[in-house]
Design goal:
CATH class of the largest domain: Alpha Beta
CATH topology of the largest domain: BirA Bifunctional Protein, domain 2
Strand content: 15-25%
Number of strands: 18
Enzyme class: ligase
Shape: elongated
Strand order of the largest sheet: 1-5-6-13-12-11-7-10
Distance between the termini: 61 Å
Structural class: alpha+beta
Main location: cytoplasm
Keywords: Aminoacyl-tRNA synthetase, ATP-binding, Cytoplasm, Ligase, Nucleotide-binding, Protein biosynthesis
CATH architecture of the largest domain: 2-Layer Sandwich
Pfam families: HGTP_anticodon (PF03129), tRNA-synt_His (PF13393)
Protein name: Histidine--tRNA ligase
Number of helices: 18
């Protein structure tokens, strides 16, 4: 081999729009999921797992980001030349599952599912190409009581995660109200048409872009801060005014009363039959919210909630966080929506050829986790690192293995040092791991039938107070010799002291 020729070394980097998660964040997410799961289970939903891949034609073309390659999904061609795609949400795979197993399922069918989803979209702050969702759906329930239940369950989930009432709002609307408005102002086109979806996505951005930004998206189009241009819906000035006036009719002070909002929307839809049907459904949901004690401090009606996905057919809803916090740089951050859902009566019909009503709610776990972290509500790392048993004598590995096995059998997290370094480096390793205790048995300890327990947490605290190395060596703080036979009991006692201190300070 030519000495001047360098071997290829790939650059170690996480792909754009993706991220790695450390142990603490993984555990925090697991605790979040456990709390959400408790709520879903309490409402009578059962778990389901579906494949990460689906045939592309089964997923359908519902994503809002149509300008991206592959229309917003990551796809590839199988060896039989069929197109597969990573799922972009958990709802489309559910529709396929229901259609495939329809006759065997109880109806209504209630399931929850959590897992990663993938979208081939432009990444940004807090916007990843892979993220975790946690969904609950009810299939084959035609009445809006199922939609109302989703809104109430969404509120219960946020409160279970420690977000106080008043710091969030479940905001609901109905696609049929928008259909009625568009019909009244003379915009032709079936739901799902290009003009319809462009109007929908423009309204969906109202909370981020405000009136001026939405007007541009409804008209000629808008150029964002990066210079990217989004083509508009091409509506006339009067049509734009009617749409934006409708959006602003359901926000602000008037939005604090659900019945007042509905009264305002009756003028918006006029005599449109589909629009009035949507208002009647929302009125029924309002009665259910009121009966269950879900007041305006938890659920409101809001005109800009339309959802960007093309498969929604009726009530739609979002869970918005209202508080503002500061990031690491001191900049204000408002998270907005961390969960959403709605009715999708046509999704299973794509497979079955008959209408199968369905509704669901999806929590964006990754986004909600980031919000809880900044709010200080995230249940972060409180797991003690493992006790580390040092391996100072290669010929005594069986003895060290016996120690670590005894500790594990007693329910103690324990790790056998498996590197090739000496005692000093092993202790440094244990420190870096955050180990509470290092178990040391050298030749001297073994001759006496003892082991040395080094309390690394206490030692670290005491070392801050002792500046004189001689005093440190003389005192040998946080280190105790105990009989080998009492290893488990003494380790448990030392750990119990740490837990009580942590509990006292926590």
């Amino acid at each position: 081999m030519n000495k001047s020729q360098k071997s290829f070394r790939p650059k170690a980097r996480v792909p754009k729009g993706l991220r790695d998660m450390s142990a603490g964040m993984v555990r925090a997410e697991e605790r979040m999921l456990a709390r959400i799961r408790e709520v879903y289970e309490r409402y009578g939903f059962d778990p389901l797992e579906t494949s990460a891949f689906e045939y592309a034609d089964a997923l359908g073309k519902f994503l809002p980001d149509e300008d991206r390659p592959n229309e917003g999904v990551f796809s590839f061609q199988d060896d039989d030349e069929q197109w597969l795609a990573l799922r972009y949400d958990l709802t489309a795979p559910l529709a396929r599952y229901v259609a495939e197993n329809y006759d065997a399922l109880p109806k209504p069918f209630r399931r929850y599912q959590t897992g990663p989803v993938w979208r081939n979209e432009k990444p940004g702050p807090g916007r990843f190409r892979q993220f975790t969702q946690f969904d609950a759906d009810t299939v084959a329930a035609p009445g809006v009581a199922a939609d109302a239940e989703m809104c109430m369950m969404g509120a219960d989930c946020l409160e279970a995660l420690g977000i106080p009432r008043g710091s969030y709002r479940i905001r609901a609307n109905n696609r049929k109200v928008l259909d009625g408005l568009l019909e009244r102002i003379g915009i032709a086109g079936e739901p799902g048409s290009t003009t319809y979806m462009t109007v929908l996505r423009a309204i969906d951005k109202y909370d981020r872009l405000g009136r001026k930004g939405v007007e541009l998206l409804l008209g000629p189009g808008r150029k964002d801060e990066s210079g990217d241009f989004t083509k508009g819906a091409g509506l006339s000035p009067s049509q734009i005014t009617a749409v934006v006036d409708y959006v602003e009719s359901g926000v602000g002070e008037g939005a604090s009363d659900r019945k007042l909002v509905l009264d305002g929307w009756r003028n918006v839809v006029g005599e449109s039959a589909i629009g009035r049907e949507g208002l009647d459904e929302l009125a029924e949901m309002d009665a259910l919210f009121t009966a269950a004690g879900y007041g305006l401090d938890r659920i409101e009606f809001n005109s800009w909630i339309v959802r960007g996905l093309g498969y929604y057919t009726g009530p739609v809803f979002e869970s918005d966080l209202l508080f503002e916090v500061k990031d690491e740089s001191g900049n204000p951050v408002r998270f907005g929506s961390v969960g959403s859902g709605g009715r999708y009566d046509g999704l299973v019909e794509r497979f079955k050829g008959v209408k199968v009503p369905a509704t669901g709610f999806s929590i964006g776990v990754s986004r909600l986790q980031a919000a809880l972290e900044l709010l200080g509500k995230l249940d972060v790392e409180d797991v003690l690192a493992p006790v580390v048993v040092l391996t100072l004598d290669a010929e005594n590995m069986a003895g060290y293995q016996s120690m670590v096995s005894e500790l594990r059998a007693a329910g103690i997290r324990a790790e056998l040092y498996l590197g090739g370094s000496g005692m000093k480096a092993q202790l440094k390793y244990a420190d870096k791991r955050g180990a509470p205790i290092a178990v040391i048995e050298g030749e001297d300890e073994r001759m006496k039938g003892e082991v040395t327990l080094k309390d690394l947490i206490l030692g670290s605290e005491m070392s801050k107070e002792i500046e004189d190395n001689a005093a440190w060596r003389e005192g040998q703080p946080a280190q105790v010799a105990v009989p080998r036979a009492r290893l488990v009991e003494e380790v448990m006692a030392m750990l119990a002291r740490h837990r009580s201190v942590r509990g006292h300070h926590g």
